[in-house]
Amino acid sequence: MNRRILGNLLLVFGILTQFGCGGSDQLSEQASIPSLEISDAKTFEEPFILADYATEMRSIPLESTPKSLISYVNDVAFGEDYIYVLNLGGEPAIMQFGWKGRYIRRIGTIGQGPGEFQVPTSIAFDGRRKRLVVCAPFDHKTLIYEEDGTLVEEYLDKTRMLSAAFVTSDHFWFWESQYGEPHDEGFLVNNRLHVVNSEFDTLANLKHHIHLVQNLGLVYRQPNFVFQVNDVNYFFLPTLLPETYRRDTLFAVSSTNELVPEVAFRFRESKNDGTFPPEYAMADVQVTPTQYQVQYRHQGKRYLYLYDKQSLRSAKAEEGFQAPIFAEPLMPFSKSDGTSYFVVPQQDGQGHEDNPLLLWVKWK
């Protein structure tokens, strides 16, 4: 299921000192697409230290009340004044918090009537109009709310299941997935990325015909597949890209809404024999003005790969970033504005699971 069920990263002095004398990874041309060999990167035994890469961090302990108990953070949207958390697990709910973590209200209600939803899968915040965008694909709805929870607009289209929403400075982006018939195992067979304006007029459709066979019919936890850095929109969705570009290519979206391959991330040791699970599995990519961040799995372990586009140096470490408030290393979730957040588990005084803490990060 989409979830996402999950920077502006400027790597200057901190990354250079941590990378030390690691090997230099020159971009190589393969099938006319520049590529980076992740297997060649220097491996660090310890996680990357988060403070070395962030210019700003905000710790947000989400208040626990009878109306704000969180079972599973499925998505988070950040506004100028408020934070919105999509909880899945128990009763689905969209909860609004202040930036200091104080619970304020729930947005929307569970149901099948006008302005209601059953299982929302994605939320995004429109900073220009200060409104929350909610995707409820099983209701075939997209709903728009004011910050006070007032429903402004509801778009109902029985022909579509829009499962993810992203907002950049210029457009709304919606991800639509189509599934095969039961005799085809019901796997994902087609995808379309809709680019629309604030009036929901379609500006473009970026479509990929993907026929996944049986044991490869896998839908990832939602990665951030549309994000904007320096006024350029980027697109990435592992396992769902056209076969001609393999499944690890990062695309830029041109001014005419064409997908232009920017770089392919490859694994020299990968068997690539069609077996499942693969030896390596891409999970997420984030772009910054000077760096690529790549999350992937190898032999059941999670890794984070960092590539500095200025020094041409790279490194990888198991389990991602470490910070004083993390009991264990964590991987970030990236947002469309180039920032990221971490979901940090918390316990109450009696050792029971409490609402998590969110750590919002603006990268160097």
Widest sheet, order of strands = 1-2-23-22-21-20
Looking at the structure, what is the overall shape?
globular
| CATH fold node name | Neuraminidase
Helix percent band: under 10%
The parts where pLDDT drops under 50 for at least 5 residues are 1-31, 182-186, 208-224, 239-246
Question: How many discrete structural domains?
Answer: 1
**Straight-line N-to-C gap:** 32 Å
CATH architectural name: 6 Propeller
Number of strands: 31
In this structure, how is the largest beta sheet organized? 6 strands, mixed
Superfamily (CATH H level) name: TolB, C-terminal domain
Look at the structure and give the CATH class: Mainly Beta
Tell me what portion of residues adopts beta-strand conformation. Answer: over 45%
Number of helices: 1
Radius of gyration, in angstroms, nearest whole number: 20 Å
Mean pLDDT: 76
Structural class, judged by helices and strands? mainly beta
